[in-house]
Amino acid sequence: MRLISYLLTLYMPRIILFNKPYGVICQFTPTCGHRSLQDFIPFAGFYPAGRLDADSEGLVLLTDNGKLQDKICSPKYKLPKTYWVQVEGKPDDVALNAMRRGIVLSDFKTKSAQVSLMSEPSFIWDRQPPIRFRKSIPTTWLSLILKEGKNRQIRRMTAAVFFPTLRLIRYAIGLHTLKGIAPGEWRMLAASDIN
What we know:
Elements: H1 2-11, E1 15-20, E2 47-48, E3 57-63, H2 66-73, E4 81-88, H3 93-101, E5 114-118, E6 139-146, H4 153-160, E7 165-173, E8 176-177, E9 186-188
Parallel strand pairs: 3-7
Antiparallel strand pairs: 1-3, 1-9, 2-3, 4-6, 4-7, 5-6, 7-8
């Protein structure tokens, strides 16, 4: 029985939860002067399940299993992704409802999203470099939940309703969150937590 349990652990997919800092690219090969995942993840054979732009921060899942990677990334599995978005200005109901319904962009229409105002997250870290700050223009934090993830989608959505994104943090993918993981740090999920 122990041998069977041991063999099962050898073939169980592994997942790393990584809090990607600003300026890091979601690949293992550095390019254009950016740091890459190889600067943080000390294991071979892991690949990101989805991407975050270099100027976005937050949760990236990495796995050593191609089928699991596809399930995490694919919109057909409708895995919700939660973002904390700091925008310039104070979005009104018209802007929030437009994002909730879906916005027609130049190349596609976004699917409906869950969008709500939120307080600044209590355990937020300082970004390096800091966002631009203007005394005359307030900023607002939004919680935005998507089940799709096209290139620069959130930035394009907030710009389309005239509230540009200043800071974008992916807080959660499905049930997995950044809680307890500092920027640049990672945590390996226990096999019992992979579902």
